[in-house]
Amino acid sequence: MNTAKTKVCSSCESSFSCGDLSTDNKCWCNDFPPIFNLSEGGDCLCPRCFKEACEDKIDAYTETMTPQKALKNKAISLPKQEKLIEGIDYYIENGNYVFKAWFHLRRGSCCGNDCRHCPY
Fold first, then answer.
1. Is the pTM of this model over 0.90?
2. Beta bridge partners of 16
3. Which of 42, 44, 59, 88 is deepest in the core (most CB within 10 A)?
4. Confidence band for 120, pLDDT divided at 50, 70 and 90
């Protein structure tokens, strides 16, 4: 059964598919961190705009982090994501993965490897 719907992005006005054709009826946006309240964003955003909105919101949040705040941050209690998302959890520099502060916050502690973006 096809549960996907065609929607129009409330930001860029492009058409996109909302929902999934698989049996679990899971939308592509469920792969992103659940950081938005439904009342915040109005209607749905396309994948590109949604990712940009997530990056902006997460970057604003991580910029407020201090080592003391990091120990009791909101990201630890969020449901675990199955896959990492480029631009949110990491970026690639000279062929290497560089993990961003959000990745470290979700992990919940310092690994002791002197990571560039460690908030702890």
1. no
2. 7
3. 88
4. very high
